[in-house]
Each structure stands twice: as structure tokens, then as C-alpha cells.
Amino acid sequence: MFEHIQPYAGDPIFALVDAFHADARPQKVNLSIGIYFDEQGRLPVLPSVQQAEARILAAGGAKPYLPMEGDAACRAEVAKLLLGGGHPAITEGRVATIQTVGSSGGLKVGADFLKTWLPEAGVWVSDPTWDNHRSMFEGSGFRVETYPYYDAATGGVRFDAMLDTLRGLPARSIVLLHACCHNPTGVDLSPAQWDALIPVLRERQLLPYLDLAYQGFGDGIDEDAYAVRALAAAGLTYFVANSFSKSMSVYGERCGALSAVCATKAEADLVLGQLRFTVRRIYSSPGIHAAKIVAHVLGDADLRALWQAELAAMRERIAAMRVALHARLTTLAPGRDFGYFLSQRGMFSYTGLSAAQVDQLREQHAVYLIRSGRICVAGLNTGNVDRTAEAMAAVLRG
Ligand code: LMR
């Protein structure tokens, strides 16, 4: 029956995590997967989330099925977090938000929905992008192409080339954009670049699909929602998949959402109905614990303030590690420009290290990063940053 099945080569990110855990060397450093670790190298449990969970249990902790679209309070809080409370798109009923199984669940539900309702569309992702974007959309039956993005020569964005490519796309093409903290490069569009991109999206009648997995890790919760709000202000119709995995440190709870911002309430209602049907066909309904955490943390003024402070502390610790790595590498490898560690945003930096250099780092120095040269800066701490810099400098010396 199954003899013909091809072996699965494994996921490049998760396989590396497995290899890291299997590594017996005590000095090993995990800069692979996009997970925030604290100064002690532990996965933090945020007090805001702990307090929310205590309240959920105190309220009885019953676990009925949620509706297909998820918990109403959670969905309302998500829309407000994305667009800002009282936004006209929300008050006019033009936002269709569903709670999803992480933002990956949201991306997948959105991809299946779009394959049904825009079956001829192609999907365009940044070059490079998160490994799983291509797999997900191809898995939903799409043809996936790339638009120019990262400029290895300057460490910036090939913005003119990006716009040229987007100008040449057929109407109704789907354009996947990282709203902030680009994964894997850490190189974001500036507000001015978003402002220049949006008219192209509108004139070409393209459908922006934002991936917002790292809100709060760039410059702040509202600052990182710039693209979401600018698209709404320009009156575009678009999708946004957002995640609380990193921002609330609730990776395994699978807390995420998918929102469609539409031209009219009637359209949003149609979209919501079909998103519900899409969910029903995949996993029926999302998890209740995830919904309650999000609804409590965002919906209670005290918990929300606590969470915002916790998120700011995570963001600031990452920024401090960027400064420390940059300083140490600049001393160890003078003559090289490591300024990209300071200008890139969020958890990731693109080091420009080759796959062979990455292998050398792992094999000889027990420093784990993705073979594209992406490092997760959030895996650094004051105890391992010097060793990491020394290992990188040794590999760069060849
Ligand atoms: C990453 O890029 O490392 C994270 O988004 C985790 C994942 O699922 O790949």
C-alpha cells in the first residue's frame, strides 16, 4: 500500500532543533528556530499569561467546542490589536477575523480559501522568505513565484526591482508580505517604502497577504502594525495572518488569527462565512485555551499593560544582544562591516555566511544556525554571545 511513498527529508528548521538537542557538547548555542529565550537561555513563561491562565481556571475551566471562527472576545481583541481600537474598518463591520491554530493555521486557511475563490491567481513571495511559505501555498495548489527583496550587496531591500516586478503582475495576484521583522533577513520596508508600495498594489489590483508573526519585536506593537494600518487607510482589501506564539511566548498553545479587511460589510460577511467553512473542512474549530489566553491578556487593562512591558523587555534584550554581537565581532574581525546586526529588526539577522561556513560553525563550534546564514538573535545571551562571536570570527578567517 505505502511502498511507493517518498521519504520526507525533514524540515530544515525543525531538523536543526532536533540536532541541537541531540548534541552533547555543553557549550552549544541554539540560534536556529525563531523562538525567544531569556538571559538564562530558558523559554520564558510570561506572568501576564500565567495570570490569565489562573483566571481561566478560576472561572471553571470548562472546555466546550468553540465555533469554527473561534472565540468572539479573542477575535475582537485581535482586530483591535491589528488596526487600533475604534478603527472605521472595525466599526463598519468590514473586518472578518477568525481565531486560528497559530498564524501557520491562519496562513493555511487563507491559502485554501483563496485557492477556492481566486483559483487562477499566482502567489508571489519575497526572495528569500520563510521556508514554509512556499510549501504552504504550494500545498494549497498554488503556483508560487518570488519577487526581488533582499540585496546581499547592500544589506537592504532591492526596492526598485521589487516594485518593477509587482508592477508586472496580473491583477488579483496574491503578494505575500512580511509586515515587520522579515523572516529570514531582518530587513524591513521603511514606512516610506510601504507608502510607495501601496499605490502599486492598488493600481495593479493585487491582493496583499501580510504575515505578522513578530509584532512587538521590531519597534513596538503599534509601530510594527504600520503596514496593516497603512493598507487599511488606503482602502485596500487584504489578508493578515498574525501570531501570539512569540509575542506571548505561547508557541505550543497555537494562538493566532487570520483577518480579511474588506471593502464592505457585505463582503466581509461572505468572506467570514467561507473562512468558517474552510476551517470546518480542515480542523473544525480552534483550541479554547489559546482563545482564552489571548482574550484575557488583551482584554484586561492590567494584564495588557503587563504584557506590553514584558514584550518591550524581550525586544530590548534582543536589541542589546545585537549591540553586543556587533561590538565583539567588530573587535575580532576588524575591517568587516557588521552594521547589519544593528539595522536589522526582530529576532533574525542574515549574516551572509555560506552554507559551508554554517556547517563549520555547527560541527566545530556547536553554534547552530539555519544554512541560509540566518541567525536567531533571541538565542544569544551575555553567557554565550562572546563565544558565538569568536566562533563566527574563526569561521570568517577561514
Ligand atoms: C522560524 O522561522 O524559525 C519560526 O517561524 C518557527 C517555524 O515554525 O519555522
TrEMBL record:
User: Which cellular components does GO assign to this protein?
Assistant: cytosol
Keyword Transferase on this protein? yes
Q: Which cofactor does it need?
A: pyridoxal 5'-phosphate
Record's superkingdom? Bacteria
Concerning SUPFAM superfamilies, the annotation shows: PLP-dependent transferases
InterPro entries referenced in this protein's UniProt entry, alphabetically: Aminotransferase_I/II_large, Asp_trans, PyrdxlP-dep_Trfase, PyrdxlP-dep_Trfase_major, PyrdxlP-dep_Trfase_small
A biological-process GO annotation: L-phenylalanine biosynthetic process from chorismate via phenylpyruvate
Q: Where is the Aminotransferase class I/classII large domain?
A: 27-391
The record's annotation in CDD domains points to: AAT_like
GO MF annotations for this entry?
A: identical protein binding; L-tyrosine-2-oxoglutarate transaminase activity; pyridoxal phosphate binding
Q: Does the keyword tRNA processing apply?
A: no
* Key words, A-Z: Aminotransferase, Pyridoxal phosphate, Transferase
Q: Of which family is this protein a member?
A: Belongs to the class-I pyridoxal-phosphate-dependent aminotransferase family.
* Binding partners and assembly: Homodimer.
Name of the protein described by the UniProt record:
Aromatic amino acid aminotransferase
Q: Which organism is it from?
A: Pseudaquabacterium pictum
